[in-house]
Amino acid sequence: MKREPKNPIITADKVKPSQDFLKVDGIFNCGAAKLGEEYLLLCRVAESCAEKEEGFLCIPVYDESEDRLKKERIPVEELRREYDLSDSRMISSVNECGIKKIRYLTSISHLRLARSRDGISFEVEDHPALPLKGRYERWGMEDPRITYLEEEGRYCITYTAVSDLGAMPALLITKDFIEYERIGAIFPPENKDVVIFPRKIGGLYYAFHRPVPYEIGTPDIWVSSSPDLKHWGGHRHVSGVCTDSWENGRVGSGAPPIHTPEGWLHIYHGADHGSRYCLGTMLTDLENPGRVIARSTRPVLEPCEPYETEGFFGGVVFTCGCIVEGDKISVYYGAADDKIARAEMSLKELLTGLSWKEA
User: Fold this and answer.
1) Which CATH number fits domain 2-352: 3.30.1490.190, 3.10.105.10, 2.115.10.20, 2.30.110.10?
2) What is the pLDDT of residue 359?
3) Global pTM?
C-alpha cells in the first residue's frame, strides 16, 4: 500500500466534543462510501470526561432510562483493590473461571460523519450522525462498516453496539446519510467485525462476522446468510488464526468485500499475541463466499509510521472501509486507535500478490 503523504488525514483536534463535559480522545475506524461526487467517512469518535475529580474516576455512560449521556463517578481506591487498570481503554477483572472480563470502559464512542470532495481533505460534522439509543448502546457505538447494495439503492451500516451485556453487531439502513432506519442487533454477543456482501448470492444476503470464544477456540472469521438482513443462519467457519504468523492472536473482517471476476476480495485485519494489528488480503469463491481460494502470505500494511505506532493504543492499523474507483482502492484506516489515515493500492496488484494455494 502507498500511504497518503498528508497522513494522518483526520485527528482528534479537528473534532468538536458532543457534550460540554466531554473531550475527544480519538477519531478512527471509519466506514467509507461515495455518494454522488462526495466522499463520506462514518467515523468512530471516542470521548471521555474532560475534567478529573480527585479520588474518583469519571467515565461517560449512556443512561437509556433518561435517554442521555451522563458522568459516572467511581472511587479510585475501590478500583485499585478490585480491578486491573493496566489498559488505558478499560477497567477489568478476572472472574472465578480465570477469564478476563471488562467492567467499565474509560471512554464512550459514537458515529460521526466526515465529508470531502477529493477523498483526502475532510470536514467533520459538529454533531453525531445519530444518537445513542437503547439498552445495548449503553457503552457506545463502534467500528462502522458501510456496504452499498446497488440493486436496492441503499446503504447497510453494521456497527458494534457495546454495553455491560457485551459487544454485539447491529445494523442501520440509510439512503442519504441523513435519515437512518435502526434494524437493531443482528448477532448476539460476543461478536464483532460484521461486513455485509454488496450483492445477494443465490437469493440470500451474506455476511462475515467474528465470534469471540472464551474457553475453547480463537477469534476467527465466520460466514452467515440471511433472507432479510435481520435473521441470520447457516453459520460456517471461514478462516482462523495462524499460530506461527503475524495473525496468531485474532483475525477479523476489515472493509466490506469487493467483487472481482476472480472472487470476493477481502481486506481483513490480524493481530498477534502482543496486540499488534496489521492488514492482510484473501479471496473467496463468488458462489461459495465462505471458501477461501487465495490469500496474502504477509501483511499488506503494517504499523511502522509514528502516527501508527504512537497514540492511544500504539501498533495498530485497522480498516473498516475502502472506496474502489477503477483499479484504485483507497483504504481508510484507524491508526493507533486515535486518528484516521489513508492508503492507496492497485486492485490488479493486490490480486497478483495473492497466493493461490487452496486454504
Assistant:
1) 2.115.10.20
2) 43
3) 0.95
